Amino acid sequence: MKKPFLATACAVLLAACSDPSADEYAVWSAAVDAAFGGAPRTLAVIPDPEDGGAWLGGKEEDIRELRRLGLPFVMARNYVAVNHAMVRVRPSRFSTRRVTLLPPVPAVARRTLEAAGVSDGDLYVSRVGFDESGMRALVTVSRRPGPDGDRGVMMVVERGGDGRWRHATVLVEWKS
Fold first, then answer.
1. Could you please report the per-residue DSSP string of the chain?
2. Contact 14, 86 (CB under 8 A)
3. Is the pLDDT of residue 56 over 70?
4. Alpha carbon 103 to its chain's center
5. Taking the CA of residue 82 as centre, how many other CA atoms within 13 Å lie in the half-sphere pointing to its CB?
6. What are the φ/ψ torsions at residue 148 (nearest 5 degrees)?
7. Which residue has the higher pLDDT, 77 or 104?
8. Are 102 and 45 in contact (CB under 8 A)?
9. What is the pLDDT of residue 109?
10. Phi, psi at 22, each rounded to 5°
11. Residues forming a β-bridge with 5
């Protein structure tokens, strides 16, 4: 019998001051499933903005770097614009299909779960940058630390004809 994958997920969401939209939760759900849903997994989301920091500051060089990856200007600009501050996330609003999300636990409990071999680290999710049509979105998800080291993916997610968001393209993937 396989031991379930338990990862404490610190959904450190980098964003403007507004609450996340229903579409953002749908994009995050699709991205988390695509990146980490290859086997049954359980992630605990810690919606605490004090757990991490923003990595983008709305700078022109960030937009240029994303454009080099082939992204449309509006999507790159929107992604950079919303990823300069943090926001709280509600785990109950995710709708993942292959990853189970648990209620929040304190940082001390996360470290205890990791030490006991029950948790595989914290999950970080960026805010979503939508294109002009609202049908494509750029998002980054990463797991730190994990059993095989840190792992992350920056991907484009697309809304299908049925309204569901699906993984479309991996732009950058990293492991350390």
1. -PPPEEEEE---EE--SSPPPHHHHHHHHHHHHHHH-SS-EEEEE---GGG--------HHHHHHHHHTT--HHHHHHHHHHTTSEE---GGG---SSEEEEPP--HHHHHHHHHTTSB--EEEEPPPEE-TTSSEEEEEEEEES-BTB-EEEEEEEEE-TTS-EEEEEEEEEEE-
2. yes
3. no
4. 16
5. 24
6. -110, 25
7. 77
8. yes
9. 77
10. -60, -40
11. 41
Distance CA 52, CA 55 (A): 9
Q: Give the pair of three-digit tokens for residue 64.
A: 């240029």
Q: How many CA atoms lie within 13 A of 79 on its CB side?
A: 28
pLDDT at res. 8: 36
Kindly compute the dihedral angle of the four CA atoms of residues 64, 145, 90, 50, in this order, to the nearest 10 degrees.
-80
The model's pTM is: 0.78
The answer on pLDDT for 43 being more than 70 is: no
Residue with tokens 């960026």: 126
Q: Measure the CA–CA gap between 108 and 113, rounded to whole angstroms.
A: 9
What pLDDT, on a 0 to 100 scale, did the predictor assign at position 10?
39
Contact 166, 123 (CB under 8 A): no
